[in-house]
From TrEMBL:
Catalytic reaction annotation: a ubiquinone + NADH + 5 H(+)(in) = a ubiquinol + NAD(+) + 4 H(+)(out)
Identification of the protein by name: NADH-ubiquinone oxidoreductase chain 4
Organism the protein comes from: Whitmania laevis
EC number: 7.1.1.2
Taxonomic lineage: Eukaryota, Metazoa, Spiralia, Lophotrochozoa, Annelida
Domain NADH:quinone oxidoreductase/Mrp antiporter transmembrane stretches: 110-392
Membrane-spanning segments: 12-37, 57-76, 83-106, 112-130, 142-165, 177-197, 217-236, 248-269, 276-295, 301-322, 334-354, 387-406, 426-443
PANTHER family associated with the record: NADH-UBIQUINONE OXIDOREDUCTASE CHAIN 4
Functional description taken from the UniProt entry: Core subunit of the mitochondrial membrane respiratory chain NADH dehydrogenase (Complex I) which catalyzes electron transfer from NADH through the respiratory chain, using ubiquinone as an electron acceptor. Essential for the catalytic activity and assembly of complex I.
Family named by the database record: Belongs to the complex I subunit 4 family.
Gene Ontology terms: cellular component: mitochondrial membrane
Source domain of life: Eukaryota
Gene Ontology BP, a term: electron transport coupled proton transport
Main location: mitochondrion
Amino acid sequence: MLKLFLPMVGLLMFLNLNYVWVLFILIVMLSLLNFLFNYMSWGMILIKLSSWSMIDSMSSLLMVLTMWMCIMMVICSFKYFMYFYSVLVCFWNLHWVFMLVLLMSFSQVNIVLFYILFEFSLIPTMWLIMKWGYQPERLQASLYLVMYTVMGSLPMLCCILFMGYCNSSLSFFMWPVFVNMYFIESWWLMFLLGFLVKLPMYPFHLWLPKAHVEAPVSGSVILASILLKLGGYGVIRMGLMYPWLNLSSIPMLLSFSLLGGVISSFICLRQIDLKSLIAYSSVSHMGLMLMGALSSSKVGLFGSMMMMVSHGFSSSALFIMANMNYDSCNSRSILVCKGTLLVVPVVSLFWFLFCIMNMAAPPFINLVSEISIMMSVTFISSGSLMVIGLISFLTLCYSLNMYAVINHGSWSNYLGMYKMVWLKDYVMLIYMIVPSLMLLLKLN
C-alpha cells in the first residue's frame, strides 16, 4: 500500500506546497493502515513489551484507533489555533499527553496502573470542555463527567485492592487463579461498575449528553471514539478472565442494556438538539456492545470489538459534520439547519454515508458487528432478539429522520450563507470512511 501511494505523494508535494500538511497526514494514515493490515491478527497473539506492558490483537486495534482519532482531533480543531500561537502550543501539548495516556492504558499489565491511567484520562477531557466549551453550562458538564466516573470507580478500586491482596498479584494474567469462593456476584458487579459508567450503560449515562453538548468538536470526537472504548476494553478484558461470573450476572445487565437501548432510541426520535441526538445514539450502540461482551463467546467478543471500532468512526464523523452545521447556522437545532442538499450536495452525500453507517447498513463493518452480537445474545436468551430487532428498527428511523431533516427543505432566509467547506473537512470525512470499509478486507 505504501509503495503505491508514496510516489504519488512525492509528486503532489512538488506540484503544490500549500497541501504539504495534508500529504504529511496522508503518509501517517497510510503507515497506520499498513500496520493494521500487515502486522495485526484477529487471533489472541500476545507481544510482551516489558514487565508492565503488553500488546495483543485487542490492544493493537484500539491503539491504532487512538492514534488515528488523535490526528483527526488536531485537524478538526484547526480553527482554534489558526491565528493564536499560544493556543496552538497548549492544544498540541494536551494532544500528545492525551494520546500517551491512552496508549499506555491499552498496553498495561498491572491493574493498578491501568486504573490510574483510566482515571487520569479524565483530566485532559475535562480541560477541553472547560477551556473550549461553547456555553456557560460547560462547568456543570465537567462536574457531571468527573462525579459520575470517579464515584463509579471507587468501588472498582476497592475490589482491585481486595483481589490483589487475596491473589498476591496485580497482574491481569495472574488473576484467573483467584479462588472463586471469595468473589461473589455482588463484588463482580461492583468491580464492573467503573467500566459501566465509563461505557456508559443505562442508567449511568446522564453525563454523556451533557459532556457532548458542551464539548468542542475535538472533545466530542475523543469522547465518542476513545474514552467510551476504555469502558468496553475493561469489560472485555475482565470477561476473558472470569467468563463464569459474566454468565451469572448477565440476566440483570442484559435487561438494563435492552431497556436502555429502547429508551435511548425513543429519546433520539424526539430529540431536536443534533449533538444530543448523536450522544444518545452512542448510549444505544454501547448497550448492544455490552451484550456481546457479556456473552463470553468468541462471536460476541468479536462483534463487540467491531462495534467499538465502527462506532468510533461513525459517531466521530457525525459530530464533525454536526460542528460544520453549527458553524454555518450557529444553532444545534435540526429544525433550523435545513437545505444542505441544495447548498452543498457533496456534504449531503457524506451525511447520507455516515447515517447509513450509524444504522448498520452495508457495506460498512457495523453490519457485521450487529449480526455477530445478535448471534451471541440469541444463545443466551432467544426472546431478547425481538428487542434487539426493535432497537435496530428505531436506529434506522432516527438516522433517516436526521438525514432528511438536515438535508432536505429550503435554506432559511434568516441564516447567512453556508460556510465554505475547506479541504481539511473533506480529508477528515474521507479518513473516517476508508478504514471502516477496508476493515472488511481483514475479516476471515
